[in-house]
Amino acid sequence: MSTSHIEIEDLISRIAMGDRTAFRTLYGRTSAKLFGVCLRVLDDRALAEEALQEAYAKIWTRAGQYRVNGYSPMTWLITLARNTAVDRRRARDAGGRRRTSPIDAADLIADPAPGAAQQAEARGEARALHLCMSELPPERAEMVRRAYLDGATYAELADATGTKLNTVRTWLRRSLMQLRECLSR
Amino acid sequence: MTGAADTDLPGGWEAAAAEYVLGLLAEDEVSAFERRLAQDRDLEQDVAAWQEYFATLTAPIEDVAAPPQVLRRLEAQLFGRARRSLVGQIMPYLLGAVTAGAIAWTVNVSGLLGFDDDPDLWADLETPSRGLVLLAHYAPSSQTFMVRRDAGDYPEGRSLEIWMIPEAGDTPVSIGLVAQDGLTEIPVSDEIAAQLPGAGIAISDEPEGGSPTGQATGPVISLGQMAPRDE
């Protein structure tokens, strides 16, 4: 377990006790990562700032709910920020600003995957997911990526692939099971 | 039971766990899933594992320093305006009638109480044409950037924005706005704190509420450099 892993868990447990200094330290350590995530999801600085603020407000109030489960505490923080940003993106897009670019399998094959060097450095889970995603048909892997990183809904994925919603859902669930099978190998 | 674990959809609860983490379940499906989750440890582990795996999709995303106003708003939201550092508590008493000796006294008080060894930093920011005299002060012990207005009027209907220029030629980073009244106190992020020693500090005249673009749009009315003071 890395030092930063232990340090961040320690900070979260101090925040659960209402320690403001720990909160500011955690913010200093992690806000650039979480702001990057919010920007990635929302693609809008002002909304990303609001999402970041909301995410850290949740971190402050929910720190007591954090459970050490052997996984990275960064996952807890990233999940909170990502979900907050996705909720804001959906609220915004419900107002009609939806952008769904088509998913084109040919483009995806040409799209360079993260470099080999970067993959070699990546943590075990990242490497495993990358490997297992690469076993999926490229457009299915892209759907998973869009769902997580853009907060795309089934309706948007159906639009992007020109397919009926139920068909997309059946495809994606099969792919998720394939992914699960591969990841548990 | 609703769609999440429908028999005509492949994968059952296990696939639903991934959909849940991706945020693909409909609202009623989420409620049904969470009811199940509360009593199914295997499912709980599945959710935790999916969260861990999918969170790695963010690994290639570059870090982006959050603008300082986010931390300021966040702390105001969570802790209210009453948040005061020790130096912040002392500073208002020194307002208006401050001497170099009094400043040194503040520094010594901070030192005696065993705060970090990093020195406090100061910069004089004067605008003779406007009769404006500001003093910028950074206290590492509370990671707070302060600005005191010693002379001159706050421009009406405008805002004075504080910028940090880490090194000559760097893009200025906004620290926040000079308060219209009283002492300006701005908590700063670790990134900004680390760059403050020796950094240039500029004050620009901006539309009310601060620069709309994130970069200085109005004239820069004063410029100084953050440095420790002996006395």
TrEMBL record, chain A:
Start and end residues of each RNA polymerase sigma-70 region domain: 26-93
Name recorded for this polypeptide: RNA polymerase sigma-70 factor (ECF subfamily)
Gene3D superfamilies recorded: 1.10.1740.10, Winged helix-like DNA-binding domain superfamily/Winged helix DNA-binding domain (1.10.10.10)
Residues spanning the membrane: none
Similarity comment: family membership: Belongs to the sigma-70 factor family. ECF subfamily.
One Pfam family per UniProt: Sigma70_r4_2
GO MF annotations, alphabetized: DNA binding; sigma factor activity
Biological process according to GO: DNA-templated transcription initiation
Domain RNA polymerase sigma factor 70 region 4 type: 127-179
Domain of life: Bacteria
InterPro entries: RNA_pol_sigma-70-like, RNA_pol_sigma-70_dom, RNA_pol_sigma70_r2, RNA_pol_sigma70_r4_t2, RNA_pol_sigma_r2, RNA_pol_sigma_r3/r4-like, WH-like_DNA-bd_sf
Alphabetic keyword roster: Sigma factor, Transcription, Transcription regulation
SUPFAM superfamilies recorded: Sigma2 domain of RNA polymerase sigma factors, Sigma3 and sigma4 domains of RNA polymerase sigma factors
From TrEMBL, chain B:
PANTHER family associated with the record: ANTI-SIGMA-K FACTOR RSKA
Origin superkingdom: Bacteria
Membrane-traversing stretches: none
Region (Disordered): 201-231
Gene Ontology cellular-component annotations: plasma membrane
Pfam families: RskA_C (PF10099)
UniProt GO MF annotations: sigma factor antagonist activity
Protein name stated in the entry: Anti-sigma-K factor RskA
Domain annotation Anti-sigma K factor RskA C-terminal: ranges: 35-220
InterPro entries hit by this protein: Anti-sigma-K/W_factor, RskA_C
GO BP terms in the entry: regulation of translation
